Amino acid sequence: MNTNSDFLSDLCDFLYPRSPYYGQFKPEYLVFNASLQEFSQRVNYICSLQTGGKISPEEAYQQIHVLWKELKRAKKAL
User: Fold this and answer.
1) Closest CA to 67 of 35, 39, 37
2) How far apart are the C-alpha atoms of 21 and 25, rounded to whole Å?
3) 14 burial level (CB within 10 Å; 0-12, 13-18, 19+)
4) Which DSSP string do the residues of the chain spell out, in sequence order?
5) Residue 72 has what pLDDT?
6) 62: number of CA atoms within 13 Å, CB side?
7) 9 CB-near residues (< 8 Å, 6+ apart)
8) Phi and psi (nearest 5°) for 19?
9) Digitized pLDDT (tens) for each residue of the chain, 78 residues in all
10) Residue 23's pLDDT is what?
């Protein structure tokens, strides 16, 4: 059972890498950094799907545009 848990943890670390935050510590900065890293990771996946021919450039643009709006909302909420 523990081996399965380790595998899933390693898989999540691989698929969703997180970099440590080195900036000035404020809770809102840390939250925004996490949002920014998630945005970056999802944009990377969308770009890879578009490059691989799995989605159209227009669809990729629309998805990234939606993610950008979500990131702006998250920034304003802080």
Assistant:
1) 39
2) 8
3) exposed
4) -HHHHHHHHHHHHHHS--PPP-S---HHHHHHHHHHHHHHHHHHHHHHHHHTTSS-HHHHHHHHHHHHHHHHHHHHH-
5) 95
6) 5
7) none
8) -100, 145
9) 456 777 776 766 666 666 777 778 888 888 898 899 999 999 999 999 999 999 999 999 999 999 999 999 999 988
10) 77
Q: Tell me the CA distances in angstroms from 33 to 15, 59, 63, one per residue in order.
A: 18, 26, 20
Contact between 39 and 71 under an 8 Å Cβ cutoff? The reply is: yes
Phi, psi of 45 (to 5 degrees): -65, -45
Residue whose token pair is 């945005």: 39
Supply the pLDDT for residue 1. 47
